[in-house]
Amino acid sequence: MSILDIDDIVVTHRRPGAPPVRAVRGVSLSVEPGQVVGLVGESGCGKSSLARVAVGIEAPTSGTVRFEGRPLEPLRMRQRPAPDRRLQMVFQNPYASLSPRRTIASQLLDGVAENLDRRQREAEVARLLALVGLDTAAATRYPAQFSGGQRQRLAIARALAAKPSLMVADEPVTALDAFSSAQIVRLLQSLVAELGMGMLFISHDLSLVRAIADETAVMYAGEIVERGPSEQLWERPQHPYTRTLIAAIPEIGPVKKLPGLDEQPPTALSNAGTDAGLTNGARP
Ligand SMILES: Nc1ncnc2c1ncn2[C@@H]1O[C@H](COP(=O)(O)OP(=O)(O)OP(=O)(O)O)[C@@H](O)[C@H]1O
C-alpha cells in the first residue's frame, strides 16, 4: 500500500482583488514505503502549493489526498488541530521549525514524549541527535549556535522524533552551500534506507533530485509533464521541458557528481537507526 496517494489535485489560490491563480492542475502521484519520489520544476510551477496540500496544511480546491490509506483531513478544517505526526514536513528554512529561544533538548521532542521521564527524554534526544550525525553536546545549545547545515539536521531530527512514515521535504537544501547540501542529501538517503519511511523530495534542482530520488516527477505550469525512474528520466528525457531542465544545468555532461555523495552512508548512522528500534511502526 502507498503511504501517500495524491489523486487529481487542483489548487487555485484566491486573493481579494486579484485574479485567481491555478497553481496545481490535476496532479496525481504516490509514494511507497522506503521510496523517495522527487518533484522537480522551476520556481512558481506549483511545487509548494502541492506540498502544502500533501501534508494537510492546506485543503485542495479539488482532488483527494490519502495518507496511509485514509483520507487526509486538512488542518484548518479540523476543530481541534491534531496533526498526524507520522506525516512530517521539512522546509527550506530550518529556522522555521526551531524556536531561537529554547535549547535543542527542550524542543526536539515537542508533543511526542509526554509519557517519558527525564532520563528517557535525554536518551531519546541523544538518539535523535545521533541519527542526524550530531554530538549529544548539541542538546544544551540554542539554534543560533549552529551552522545552516547543522540547523537543517536539527530540523530533520525534530521531524524524526515523531517516527514519521512519510517526510515531505520542500527545498530542504536550497539555503545551504554545496557541501552541506550534499551532506543533507546523503543523510536523507540514509534515513529513508534505514527507517523505511517514504519521502517526497521537492526541488528546483534536477541534479539533486536525481541524486536522491528513485522516481522523479517533472512539474511544469501546475502539471506533471513527465515521470519515471530518475535514471531513465535523466538518460532518456521524453518531454521537451525535461530536456530543457537538463540542458540548463551548468558545466556538466550527462553526469553531475555531488561532493560527498559517492561515499557510503556512515555505519554509526545505520546502527543508530536499527539499534534504537525506530521503525515504521505505530507511535507509542
Ligand atoms: N497563497 C497564495 N496566494 C496567491 N497565489 C499564490 C499563493 N501561493 C502561491 N501562489 C502562486 O501560485 C503559483 C505557484 O506557487 P508555488 O509557491 O506553489 O510554486 P513553487 O514551484 O513552489 O515555487 P517556489 O519554489 O518559488 O516557491 C505561483 O504563481 C505563486 O505566485
UniProtKB/TrEMBL annotation:
<dbReference type="InterPro" id="IPR013563">
    <property type="entry name" value="Oligopep_ABC_C"/>
</dbReference>
<dbReference type="GO" id="GO:0005524">
    <property type="term" value="F:ATP binding"/>
</dbReference>
<dbReference type="Pfam" id="PF08352">
    <property type="entry name" value="oligo_HPY"/>
</dbReference>
<keyword id="KW-0813">Transport</keyword>
<dbReference type="InterPro" id="IPR003439">
    <property type="entry name" value="ABC_transporter-like_ATP-bd"/>
</dbReference>
<dbReference type="InterPro" id="IPR017871">
    <property type="entry name" value="ABC_transporter-like_CS"/>
</dbReference>
<dbReference type="Pfam" id="PF00005">
    <property type="entry name" value="ABC_tran"/>
</dbReference>
<keyword id="KW-0547">Nucleotide-binding</keyword>
<feature type="domain" description="ABC transporter">
    <location>
        <begin position="4"/>
        <end position="246"/>
    </location>
</feature>
<dbReference type="InterPro" id="IPR050319">
    <property type="entry name" value="ABC_transp_ATP-bind"/>
</dbReference>
<keyword id="KW-0067">ATP-binding</keyword>
<comment type="similarity">
    <text>Belongs to the ABC transporter superfamily.</text>
</comment>
<dbReference type="InterPro" id="IPR027417">
    <property type="entry name" value="P-loop_NTPase"/>
</dbReference>
<feature type="region of interest" description="Disordered">
    <location>
        <begin position="258"/>
        <end position="284"/>
    </location>
</feature>
<protein>
    <submittedName>
        <fullName>ABC transporter ATP-binding protein</fullName>
    </submittedName>
</protein>
<dbReference type="InterPro" id="IPR003593">
    <property type="entry name" value="AAA+_ATPase"/>
</dbReference>
